[in-house]
Design goal:
heterodimer; A: alpha+beta; 60s Ribosomal Protein L30, Chain: A; Phosphoribosyl-aminoimidazole Synthetase, Chain A, domain 2; 2 domains; seven-stranded mixed sheet; five-stranded mixed sheet; 14 strands; globular; B: alpha/beta; Rossmann fold; six-stranded mixed sheet; PurM-like_N_sf (chain A); HypE (chain A); PurM-like_C_sf (chain A); Hydrogenase expression/formation protein HypE (chain A)
């Protein structure tokens, strides 16, 4: 037993390390949908590409082309495992891009599908993914019109990567962008959050949460059409995928220069998600979704839009979770169930399970 | 859900808050020792709901925050070695060493893996006999039994490719260090429920008596924390300084004897450095001589790594409640959650990180990451 010398602790001498400067290499957090992803866009891609369209940082670009307003989006899918409760890489690759188009109010029409296959992957796996893509495209009312395939040597990939791009037409009178959020807007989420992220975690990490949690992967274009049928005055739509609801709301708050205030008790978190997050020390607000949207709607239209959403299969669990405010611009704040508040910041990268 | 929702009930919380308000007739400063409690306090906004007379000082109980820079540098060195599978709890991956973190090592090709238990790392060692598997064994008394069990099992199974990089810390010596430091403002403690569920309560009466502070063993849900505060304030108002168990559904007087036996078989008490604080005698554990073969520091010969921590921030004073985070010159300029200078900004539940967010909430303009502008705005907390 060492000698006890508590007198050595003098706070005047308590010190701290020098700060960690920016990473010089790509780290996993750059793909996490948080602050690191945003910095990659702001510091590397946007300056390199040099156009104003990118600067909106919406899920899809809306372009004027041949007299039409075309929504255009692309996304790569690198999920592991390839098959999970509720879906697979194929569903995700179709629904993800369909939803990115729908978030600008577009009616998705055509997709491309580019595969990067790793040498040694069984063809039955490729076939299952392709079939699920065909089925998902049919369900979403889009056509996979073009594609490409590349093969990389064994060990240089992770089985199967898919990149989809898509186009769709934006109806007249619809202008949905993150920067259009206005103080007073109702903030609505289309259903329970966190299911996709927990489903993936449960199979990836071999964790059991009492009940099987299935991904919520689903196409949302039909739900968006039902909302726009009520009013074209929907200000913002976002599908909170990587980084979850927390990241999406932060992006909207920053793009529009408004604040967001949520009521914690109103946010629909399924028990299984709450339990899994409690167990792992994660915040459900940052867990990925693949079949949910968050909408900013003028207060005068909120009830009607909510009713239309609830009448649609993909919006049955739609809930008013908060409002857009003029205070604390660029920030998302949650009124806790006990009456306090906390800030929901943009996550740095991917959430990490906490030790305690 | 049973045992969670019940401890989140807003009406019961209001009743407890009313009682605390009615009880506190003068200012009291309580320290919650455990980072898990700090997280719950911040997450539920409990600190904003308390009456002005009751101040919570966030203690040094986040194992991620207090793991010394030197140990992180050793982890980075080991994780960079070819043939090593370096396993860690998730939140250690982003904690900065001198010039990088474990994410960076992973990005440079190191095999760094997040596990949920040291026993997962043990399984990796069994399945990869040609690789060296190292588990980063950090944490307080709460995580020590499982880490001890992993080493115990490794020896039983004859696994020679498994080792621990140990940086365990103990609560009682930290309490003693805080109470004997000059200008200490702490008048009562919420003792960490999970630590006591392992170690029991026997170590605390002597501290409560010597420093004349109430010590209330407290849980982690909002009502647990409010009940702990209520009891601590009640004792202070009555001039008492006893150890109380406000978390009986998880903590027994004797703790978990089997877990304690496992710790004592594998670990022995040693002095430890705490990040942002300094050396605290007898405040940690290391592997005993009998288990030295499983000590990664020796196996990978990194004992020689010595890292000096340049004095640039005042986390130690913040941890003691001597200054508010905003009184530190580095706060919000050179020190942000993205570029943390010290322990209290490293963790999302550190006092400085919490203040940083609240201050931004009241700032007139959005401050994006990396900005070095300072806004003179008081926190709401």
């Amino acid at each position: 037993m060492p000698e006890r010398r508590a007198d050595v602790v003098d706070p005047a001498n308590w010190t701290c390390p020098a700060p960690l400067r920016d990473q010089g290499v790509v780290v996993m957090g750059h793909g996490g949908g948080g602050a690191l992803s945003a910095e990659l866009m702001e510091q590397i891609f946007t300056p390199a590409y040099g156009n104003a369209t990118l600067a909106g940082l919406a899920d899809s670009a809306v372009l004027e082309l041949g007299g039409a307003r075309l929504a255009f989006s692309t996304d790569s899918y690198v999920v592991r495992p390839l098959f999970f409760p509720g879906g697979c890489l194929g569903d995700l690759a179709v629904n993800g891009t369909v939803n990115d188009l729908a978030m600008s109010g577009a009616v998705p029409a055509y997709l491309s599908a580019a595969f990067v296959l790793e040498e040694g992957v069984e063809l039955t796996v490729v076939e299952r993914i392709a079939r699920s893509m065909g089925a998902a495209a049919e369900a979403a009312g889009v056509t996979i019109a073009t594609g490409d395939t590349k093969v990389v040597e064994s060990g240089h990939g992770d089985g199967v990567y898919v990149t989809t791009a898509g186009v769709g037409l934006v109806p007249d009178g619809v202008d949905i962008r993150p920067s259009r959020a206005r103080p007073g807007d109702a903030v609505i989420v289309s259903g329970p959050i966190g299911l996709h992220g927990v489903a993936i975690m449960s199979v990836r990490e071999g964790l059991e949460f009492g009940v099987e949690v299935a991904s919520d992967t689903a196409p949302l274009a039909g739900l968006v059409a039902a909302m726009l049928a009520v009013t074209p005055e929907v200000h913002v739509l976002r599908d909170p995928t990587r980084g979850g609801l927390g990241a999406s709301l932060n992006e909207i708050a920053r793009a529009s220069g408004t604040g967001v205030r949520l009521q914690e008790r109103a946010i629909p978190v399924p028990d299984a998600v709450a339990n899994a997050c409690g167990f792992l020390g994660l915040d459900p607000l940052y867990v990925a979704n693949e079949g949910r949207l968050v909408a900013f709607v003028p207060p005068s239209k909120a009830e009607e839009v909510l009713a239309a959403m609830r009448a649609h299969p993909q919006g049955a669990g739609a809930t008013l979770i908060g409002e857009c405010v003029a205070e604390h611009p660029g920030m998302v704040v949650v009124a806790t169930g006990l009456g306090g508040t906390r800030v929901v910041d943009l996550p740095l990268g991917e959430q990490l399970p906490r030790i305690c | 859900m049973k045992y969670i929702d019940e401890f989140n009930d807003p009406q019961l919380a209001r009743r407890l808050l009313d009682e605390i308000r009615a009880t506190a007739t003068e200012p009291w400063a309580l320290m919650e020792v455990c980072g898990g409690q700090t997280h719950s306090i911040i997450r539920h906004g409990i600190d904003q709901l308390l009456p002005e007379q009751v101040e919570l000082i966030h203690g040094p109980g986040c194992p991620v925050c207090v793991t010394p820079l030197e140990v992180i540098d050793k982890a980075l060195e080991i994780a960079s070695r070819p043939g090593v599978i370096f396993c860690s709890f998730g939140d250690m991956l982003r904690v900065p060493g001198t010039d990088r973190d474990l994410f960076r090592v992973k990005g440079e090709g190191g095999d760094v893996r997040v596990v949920y238990s040291p026993l997962d790392a043990l399984e990796l060692a069994r399945g990869n006999p040609d690789r060296e598997v190292v588990f980063f064994a950090i944490g307080f008394e709460t995580t020590a039994p499982a880490n001890a069990m992993a080493v115990h099992q490794a020896r039983r199974l004859g696994l020679s490719n498994f080792s621990l990089l140990v940086s365990h810390v103990r609560v009682p010596p930290a309490v003693e260090a805080i109470m004997t430091a000059p200008e200490c403002r702490v008048q009562g403690f919420l003792a960490a429920g999970h630590v006591c569920s392992v170690m029991g309560m026997a170590e605390y009466p002597e501290l409560a008596e010597r420093f004349r502070v109430p010590m209330v063993v407290t849980g982690f849900e909002p009502l647990d924390i409010l009940e702990g505060i209520r009891r601590a304030v009640r004792q202070l108002e009555r001039g008492e300084h006893r150890v109380e168990n406000a978390y009986p559904r998880a903590v027994r007087e004797e703790g978990n004897p089997a877990a304690v036996r496992m710790i004592e078989e594998v670990f022995e008490v040693t002095d430890r450095n705490w990040r942002g604080i300094g050396r605290i005698p007898a405040s940690g554990w290391r592997l005993t001589d009998a288990f030295r073969a499983y000590d990664a520091e020796h196996r990978f010969d990194v004992s020689g790594i010595r890292t000096e921590e340049p004095a640039e921030c005042r986390a130690g004073e913040v941890l003691q409640g001597l200054i508010k985070p905003t009184e530190c010159a580095a706060f919000g300029t050179t020190c942000t959650p993205r570029t943390p200078l010290g322990a209290t900004m490293v963790s999302s539940e550190g006092a400085c990180a919490a203040y940083y967010l609240y201050r931004r909430m009241n700032a007139p303009a959005v401050q994006t990451g990396g900005s070095a502008q300072r806004e003179e705005v008081a926190p709401v907390a």
